[in-house]
Each structure stands twice: as C-alpha cells, then as structure tokens.
Design brief:
The protein is of the alpha/beta class. It has two domains: 210 residues, Glycogen Phosphorylase B (Rossmann fold, 3-Layer(aba) Sandwich); 164 residues, Glycogen Phosphorylase B (Rossmann fold). It is 45% helix and 17% strand. It is built from 16 helices and 17 strands. Strands 7-5-3-8-9-10-11 form a seven-stranded parallel beta sheet, with helices on both faces. Helix 9 packs parallel to helix 10 and helix 12 packs across helix 15. It is globular.
C-alpha cells in the first residue's frame, strides 16, 4: 500500500469507532447482483455490525435478492460486455476505478475467486486491500478447464489468491483447493458464512422428502429420484417428494420422476417464507450432491444447515465439503458418493424411525445454533475485516478460534 494511502486509512480507522469497536467501510463485490441462489451474501451483509457494506457490481440479476440500492457500474449491450472482459483479463475498467478512488473504502470483499480477476489489479493500484471468499466451483471445476483459457484462469486466480490480504474459505475442503491453486496456507482460513436461525419451528404435515436448490447436475437430484424409487420398492410404500428450485435440468428431472412412477412435485423457486414452510412440514431433507464430469463439487452446502435449523435430518453423500456441513451419524446419514442403494437405505431408515429422525433433527438444530448462527459467523468475518484492513495479516493471530 502506498505510504500516504496507509496513513490516510489509519486516520480514518482511528476516527471511526462505535462503542469501542472499529467501524469500517467495506465494498462487497459481485459482478452480478444478485442470483436467487446467493442468499448467503445478502444475509452476511445484513448481519454486519461494525462495518458498513456497499454492494458493488456491473449487472443486475432479476431476483428477490436484487435491491435498488445495489450500485451497478456496467453498461448495457456490446460495450458493457467488452468492458467486462477488459476488466477480467486486463484489470481495465475506468468507471470502477474512479468509483473506488472516490469512495476510498477500508476494504473490498470479493465473493468467488473467479469474480476477483481484474478487480484485484485495480484494488492494488489504488492501495485498497481486498479479501476474497472461495466458495466451491471457483476453485474446483473452473481451474480444470482445458486449453489456453484454463491456463489463463489458473494463472489469474493464483495472482488473486497471492495478492489478497486474506483468503476466506467456506470449508476445509475449499481451503485445500485454494492452497493448491496458490493461496498461502497462513493467509487462508475457514470462516463459515452461517445462516439466520428461526426462533422456533412449528411442525406441520407436509412432504416425506424435500430438496431445495438449483436443478443442475452437481446437486444430484436424479440420484434423489432414483433412490426414492428404490426405497419405495424395498419398503412397499409411497414417498411424497417436494423439490424447490429451478434450473436447466428441470424438464429432464420431471420426465425421470414420471418414468420412475414416483410422486414428486416440482415447486419452482420459493421465497424465504415458502422455503421455511416447506422445511417445517418435511420429515427428511435429501441433497445428494455429486462430483460432475467437469469436477464441479459441493464446497460446503448452506442448505444442509437450513434444513438442520428446521430440525430436519439429512440424507446425502460423502462428497466435497458435505461431511463438514452434515455430521454423519449425528445430524444425518451420509452414503459413499454415488451409492444410490445406500442412499435409499438411509432415506428408509430416517422415514421409518421417528426417534432417530427426531434425535438427529434436534442435534442438527443445536449445532447450527451453536456454530453457524449468522451473527456468530459474521462476528468472525468482522475480525478478519479488521485485521486485513489494518495489515495484521497473514496469520490472523487475533482471530477467535473457529
């Protein structure tokens, strides 16, 4: 950081206190604000106490998460597309550079290493430190792209990770991937995003099995449907399935459910209250995410925490970061990845044993309240922000134990 900028930021930090705590300004960067599947970003921003977040990006994604207060600097049409590519590959975007220079935030928080390419170069030129959160696909599937574009991606992401004031990983699994791509081990730590935990959950009759998420190959919804069909055959019973979400696999999955002869309702995208009602009425959450042929893998899976917060046991696979979200034998049952017969057996066990279901559901909810409540996890994030903006990293010696 240039000496003058360092002095200015130290003065600003000393001037902004709130009940003895450092109060800072953080720009939260996403090129697109905000896909409906990225509620975790909005929840995290809303939970900040000692930092004022500014959501900054280029484009708007029509979704319930989009807000008029989001600051978007992109232009429409071909010109906007060209500017976005120049940002990614060259670190050139005059409007973004001018905005950051004018705002002079204490820190930039970039979600996804893929989104940091180019923004990191502007931040370094302006002397503004940045942290980057790696979530999954950005450090699993994307780096394995073949050919020259894959080479460019790996090279630019390595630069992003090495230049960050700190690298935040959502799980031990994604941390290992980030370190393999070039992040320094002492400068990378796990900080779970967390979720808002409902104060109470009033159980209402609903589906036997539910799923919430994007209908894409990595989520393994086809495995869910086949496992349910197997469980029905083996248990001689009908299982009602509710699937919330949308995506390119929807039509294929609807046809598969019809061919298997199972009762599956495809509910489309639900808002927060709709998801709460769905989870509150279910018996078991099933989310058998898999590793795809392109190496896309579940980095952690906040939806497993949301299910647990509603007192639901989980049936899933031992894949990616899922074993960190679901404690096998305590908060759910995990089958070896791809073992649909074991997945079916686990679904059957949870549906037929109410005591097991209740015990795991209670253990899951207690764990979420203890370890993953959004206010607790965001307090940890704020400690990272303070250390990163103050130059106390790498090592994060002042961070509380996770």
């Amino acid at each position: 950081m240039p000496p003058l900028m360092s002095c200015v930021q130290r003065w600003r930090r000393g001037a902004k206190t709130k009940k003895g705590a450092f109060v800072g300004e953080v720009v939260v960067w996403k090129s697109c604000w905000l896909p409906g599947s990225e509620t975790f970003i909005r929840h995290q921003m809303d939970a900040l106490v000692n930092w004022t977040p500014t959501p900054l990006g280029l484009r708007r994604q029509p979704s319930p998460l989009a807000r008029e207060s989001d600051i978007l600097l992109g232009r429409p049409g071909l010109r906007g597309g060209l500017e976005e590519r120049l940002l990614t590959f060259c670190g050139w975007h005059p409007r973004l550079a001018a905005y950051l220079k004018s705002l002079q935030p204490d820190l930039i928080h970039i979600h996804f290493a893929s989104e940091a390419r180019g923004v990191d170069l502007i931040a370094r030129r302006l002397g503004i430190p940045y942290v980057v959160t790696v979530h999954g696909n950005d450090v699993t599937e994307a780096p394995r792209r073949p050919g020259f574009m894959g080479y460019l991606y790996r090279r630019s992401v390595a630069r992003v990770l090495r230049g960050a004031a700190h690298v935040i990983a959502v799980s031990d699994f994604t941390k290992a991937q980030a370190v393999a791509l070039g992040a320094s081990e002492p400068n990378c730590s796990v900080a779970h995003v967390g979720i808002p935990v409902p104060d109470r959950v009033d159980r209402t009759p609903g589906y036997d099995v539910v799923f919430v998420g994007r209908l894409v190959p990595v989520k393994g919804v086809d495995h869910l449907l086949r496992a349910v069909a197997s469980a029905e055959r083996n248990g001689n019973r009908k299982i009602r399935v509710g699937i919330a979400g949308d995506g390119p696999e929807r039509d294929k999955l609807v046809l598969l459910a019809q061919r298997l002869g199972i009762q599956a309702d495809f509910l489309g995208m639900l808002d927060g209250p709709g998801i709460h009602t769905l989870l509150a009425g279910a018996k078991v959450f099933v989310g058998p995410s898999v590793t795809t042929s392109t190496h896309q893998t579940e980095g952690f899976g906040l939806v497993f925490l949301e299910a647990a917060a509603h007192g639901l046991p989980v049936a899933s696979y031992q894949s990616g970061g899922i074993p960190e979200a679901v404690q096998d034998g305590t908060t759910g049952l995990l089958a070896p990845e791809g073992d649909m017969e074991q997945l079916a057996a686990n679904i059957t066990a949870l549906l037929e044993d109410a005591d097991l279901r209740d015990r795991m559901g209670l253990a899951g909810r207690e764990r979420v309240i203890r370890d993953f409540d959004i206010m607790r996890t965001t307090a940890r994030l704020e400690s990272i922000y303070a250390s990163a903006s103050d130059g106390a990293l790498p090592g994060l010696a002042t961070q509380p134990p996770r």
